[in-house]
Design brief:
about 30% helix; ion transport; Outer membrane lipoprotein wza fold like; cell outer membrane; wza like fold; 3-stranded antiparallel β-sheet; transmembrane helix
Amino acid sequence: MKTTLKYLFIVLILSSCKTQNLLVSKEQKPEDKNTFLYDSDYQYRIRKDDKISISVWGEDDLSVGSVYGIYNSNEVYGKWLMVDINGNIEVPKIGTTNVLGKTVPELKNILTEKLKKWLVNPIVDIKVLNKEITILGEVRNPNTIQVDKDNVTLLELISKTGGFEFYANLKSIKVLRQEGENVRVTNIDLTTANDILNTNIQLHPGDVVIVPSKKNKEFDKRIATIIPLATTVSAAAILVGLL
């Protein structure tokens, strides 16, 4: 038994070395804070497994999930291109095109220039269909929310879930952001009204927001079920015991 516990302890130590930046401490590392600073020039960059629609005005045979059509059913009927493991998509007429790490305007310019071989004045629109932010925990409607724009603030996202639940811990909201193989974490305290410019941070597609509950939530839930079945004396004893 002791040997098993010893090996388990070693495994936990080794695994924690790889995922240490997932742990949240009261004092964030400087690089973690810098990750979440507001960036007015931020633009989403296309990633592997992204779903992309291409619309060319008046050219249905060159479009995939065109937003110019009468029926825009990209997601329903799978009318999109998936970015493969090498960062490529297969564009009609043009062929294999690497899109990894490119912004939407950059890709639009690339395709527009290539289409000029066949079209006089091609009008091209590109859309990433799976730009999403996930919010979990003490909000009224925890969900994965699709966002169209690149600049979304924390409070704006929370408003889309219907707001906070009663037990939301506004002092310890966590935001997780993937950076390559690393996940950065920051802790947000929304009770500091005088620091709203720093706390209402800019979110990026792919971020995960976690709103934890206050410590007394489970306590209150237990009291709600126990007290109606107890006398005042036993209820007082229970309260003392739980506290």
